[in-house]
Amino acid sequence: GAGVSQSPRYKVAKRGQDVALRCDPISGHVSLFWYQQALGQGPEFLTYFQNEAQLDKSGLPSDRFFAERPEGSVSTLKIQRTQQEDSAVYLCASSLGGVGETNTEAFFGQGTRLTVV
Amino acid sequence: GNSVTQMEGPVTLSEEAFLTINCTYTATGYPSLFWYVQYPGEGLQLLLKATKADDKGSNKGFEATYRKETTSFHLEKGSVQVSDSAVYFCALKGRQAGTALIFGKGTTLSVSS
């Protein structure tokens, strides 16, 4: 597609349930980022992939959060045993360049709004 | 560490009014600076950017100048329209691809006719 696509757009999970959020980046984009945006806040970095390699996961808030990008394109963010504080919009962004390159513009998907009840 | 502080909203203006949204930053090195906009129901979109001191980014009538001496990147528009109603985020990023954007908390702008 022309842009970054995320699915589902909305997800309601019961506390303790596992969820999986999908991101389809722009074709050919090397870099992929996940961000978490709490209500009324700016997005906060979770993790970064260059192709299939997860180079930075310093923003993941706990070991319940796991992300993968096995073939260097589609990425999945998984949250195990969801808790109410996980309720947020999860944003995915991709950019053409990788580490060491200078093309840094990031294109964002519309996000997945997760509500944990 | 790196951080971005922007004025809290909401900002409420009448059509054709002048807009300023303040943004200051703390960073090591020489980051690139950005303004993103989020229209209702849509994803974040890059509005404008500046990559070095004294650069001016501009788009759709919006402008912001990278001021290293005051560590600021204030967003301005001379005459706002109802269609500019959105949430605006100031952000910074290290120069290399692979470094994450650091966002401010966002400022909601509401323009009435």
Fold and architecture overview:
The complex is a heterodimer of chains A (117) and B (113). Helices cover 0% and strands 47% of the residues of chain A. Chain A contains no helices and 11 strands. In chain A, strands 2, 4, 5, 6, 9, 10 and 11 form a 7-stranded mixed β-sheet that branches. Chain A has a 4-stranded antiparallel β-sheet with strand order 1-3-8-7, with no helix packed on it. The radius of gyration of chain A is 13 Å and the shape is globular. The mean pLDDT of chain A is 93. By secondary structure, chain B is an all-beta fold. Helices cover 0% and strands 50% of the residues of chain B. Chain B contains no helices and 12 strands.
Task: Produce the secondary structure layout.
The complex is a heterodimer of chains A (117) and B (113).
Chain A: E1 5-7, E2 10-13, E3 19-24, E4 31-37, E5 44-50, E6 53-56, E7 65-68, E8 75-79, E9 88-95, E10 107-108, E11 112-116
Chain B: E1 3-6, E2 11-14, E3 19-21, E4 23-26, E5 32-38, E6 44-50, E7 56-59, E8 62-65, E9 75-77, E10 86-93, E11 102-103, E12 107-112
Parallel strand pairs in B: 2-12
Antiparallel strand pairs in B: 1-4, 3-9, 5-6, 5-10, 7-8, 8-9, 10-11, 10-12
What's a quick, concise take on this entry?
The complex is a heterodimer of chains A (117) and B (113). Chain A is an all-beta fold.
The radius of gyration of chain A is: 13 Å
| Rg of chain B | 13 Å
Helical residues, percent of chain A: under 10%
Summing up helix and strand content along with how strands pair, one would put the structural category of chain B as mainly beta
Which band does the percent of strand residues of chain B land in? over 45%
Biggest pleated-sheet summary of chain A: 7 strands, mixed
**Helix share of residues of chain B?**
under 10%
The residue-averaged pLDDT of chain B reads 93
The end-to-end span of chain B amounts to 41 Å
Low-confidence stretches of chain B: none
Number of strands of chain A: 11
> Hey, which two chains have the biggest interface?
A-B, 35 and 24 residues
What are the secondary-structure elements of chain B, in order, as H or E?
EEEEEEEEEEEE
> For the report, how would you describe the main beta sheet of chain B?
6 strands, mixed
